[in-house]
Amino acid sequence: MQFMKVAEILSSPQGAKVRTRGWVYRRRDLGGKVFVVVRDSTGIVQFVFGPDSPGYKDAARVTVESSVIAGGTVKDDPRAPGGKEVVGEEFRIVGLAENFPIRRDVSKEFLLDVRHLAVRSRRMTAVLKIRDTVFSAVHEYFRSNGYYEVQAPMFISAAVEGGATLFPVKYVDGSTVYLTQSSQFYLEALIYSLEKVYTIAPSFRAEKSRTRRHLTEFWHAEAEVAWAGLEDILRVEEELISFVVERVLERNREELALLNRNLEPLKNVVPPFPRISYDKAIELLQSKGLQVRWGDDLGADEERALTEFFDKPFFLYGFPEQVKAFYHKNDPSRPEVTLSADLLAPEGYGEIIGGGERIDKAEELVEKIKRFGLNPDDYKWYIDLRRYGTVPHAGFGLGMDRLVMWIAGLDHIVDAVAFPRTVARTYP
Ligand code: ATP
Ligand code: MG
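Above: inputs. Below: predicted complex with magnesium ion.
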C-alpha cells in the first residue's frame, strides 16, 4: 500500500485503510495500550496499538523522533489530535532515535545550540512554512509587475551602508574585500538596461549590538526602478507588503493559529499606508516624553513608540541628510532632508523597509560623498552610472527576516530563520 501524508489521513473517513511514514512526535503508554503520535511535513496523527496489534512490539519500544512506517484503520475520535485516530495494524522502525535532547524544560540558548534538531518543532515548522509563502509571494509580486530578477556579487570592494558594519574577507590575492551589505548599487547599474529589477539575496552586516531585530546575515529583497521617484516607490512598497500578507492569510491559516497570531492586525494590511514626516514624528515622540532631538536617528525604542499611533504599516519620510546613507537624494525644496522613507510595521515591530530616491547627478553625488567624509575614488563605477545617460530612479531594501518576524508575530528575529547568524552565534 502507498504512503499517504498525515493531512490526507486526517481527512479520510472512518474505516479507511491508511499508511504513512514520518517521525515519532510523542509516545504514551496507557492502560496496556501504546499511543504513538506520528509527525510528517503536513501534521500529526495518533496511532494506537493494543498488545495484540501487529507492530505492537516496535511501537512499545520506539523513542521520540525515531523515523517510522505506520499503518492501520481510521477511527473518529474527538480526543485525538485532528479528531482522528488510527487503529494500528503495522509499525516499523526505520531509524531508532537516541534519547532526544530537546525536552519541555530546556533553555532558549540550548535550543539554539541544537537548532539542527529544534527546526523539527511544530512551531519552527509553522514559521518556515510562513517564510516559504513570504519568499514566494515577493517573487510572485515582482514577476507579475514587470520586474527582472537579477543577482549581484557578495564580494565587494567598498561600503554601501557605512564602514562600521563591514565584514572584511581575505581575498585570494591577499587583498581585503568585504561581504556585501546590500545589492543596491549593482541593481542601480542594471536599471539602464532592464529598467525594473529586483533581487532576493543575503546581506551581511557586522552589527555589534544585540537586538531583537538584527542578524549579521539576513535576507534582503531589493528593488530598483528607472524613471521612478519617491512617490512611485512608496506605492510599490505598500502594494508588495499588502500582497505578501494577503498570500499568508490565504495559505497559512493553520500555521498562524499554531503560533497564536492575532489575525486582526494582518487583515488591516491594505493600501494606502499612512504617512508621517520625520519632523512630526520627533514632535510626537517629544510629547510622549522621549529624549529625542531633530537630527537624531530613530532606534528601536522610538520606532516602537511611533507604532502605537498606527494600526497598520506606515511610512516615516523626510529623514535628515545625516541619518541616511550618502546615496539618498536631498529634497530640492528643503536640502537638509532626503527624499527617503522607511516602512514601519505596526504592533511595536518597526522598520522593515528602507528606501527612496537616489542621487542622479554625478556632481551632486561626488559632493555628498566628500561631505560624508568618504573617498570618491572608492565609488568610481557607482559615480560613472550618472555619467552615461543618467535617469531619476528610486528603490528600496526589505528585510525578509523582519517581515517574517512581524507577520508570524515573533518576539525575536532569530525565530524567523532556520539557522540564524548573530553577533553571538555561527553554530550550527
Ligand atoms: P536598522 O536601523 O534597523 O539597523 P537600517 O537602517 O540599517 O536598519 P537599511 O540599511 O535601510 O536598514 O536596510 C534595509 C532593510 O534591511 C531594513 O529596513 C531591515 O528590514 C533590513 N535589515 C537591515 N539590517 C538588518 C539586520 N542586521 N538584520 C536583519 N535585517 C536587517
Ligand atoms: Mg542598520
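Residues 47 and 86 are 5 Å apart (CA to CA).
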